[in-house]
Amino acid sequence: MNNGLRNFEEDFLSYVLSLSIEEDKIYSFGDMSFDYDFVYSSGQYKLSIYNVALDHYGMPYRNMLSFEEVTLDYLFEA
């Protein structure tokens, strides 16, 4: 398991499970290491994981060049 997914499961899974999830609505959240987009679309729960980088002023931003998408259907199966 990659660090972004491990971080999500440890720090944000309970938050996502508490949401009233609407189809095609993007939920964005994150911390200083990873930024996430979560969406339920076309019958799949998808998580986009981005690394967070710092610009030359030390401000964090979503590194669009470091991106991974995973399907989280196994977490929502009854």
Write the layout of secondary structure elements.
Blueprint: H1 3-11, H2 13-17, E1 27-30, E2 34-41, E3 44-54, E4 60-71, H3 73-76
Structural summary, described in words:
The structure is a single chain. This protein is α+β, with helices and mostly antiparallel strands. Helices cover about 25% and strands about 45% of the residues. The protein has 3 helices and 4 strands. It has helices at about 5-10, 15, 75, and strands spanning about 25-30, 35-40, 45-55, 60-70. It has a 4-stranded antiparallel β-sheet with strand order 1-2-3-4. The longest helix has 9 residues, at about 5-10. The relative contact order is 0.20. The mean pLDDT is about 95.
Mean pLDDT: 93
Sequence of secondary-structure elements: HHEEEEH
The radius of gyration computed from the alpha-carbon positions, rounded to a whole number of angstroms, is: 13 Å
Number of continuous helical runs: 3
Strand content: 35-45%
What's the story with the biggest beta sheet? Answer: 4 strands, antiparallel
Summarize the entry for a quick read:
This protein has 78 residues and is an alpha+beta fold. It has helices at 3-11, 13-17, 73-76, and strands at residues 27-30, 34-41, 44-54, 60-71.
Considering the chains and any ligands shown, give keywords for the structure.
single chain; 78 residues; alpha+beta; 4 strands
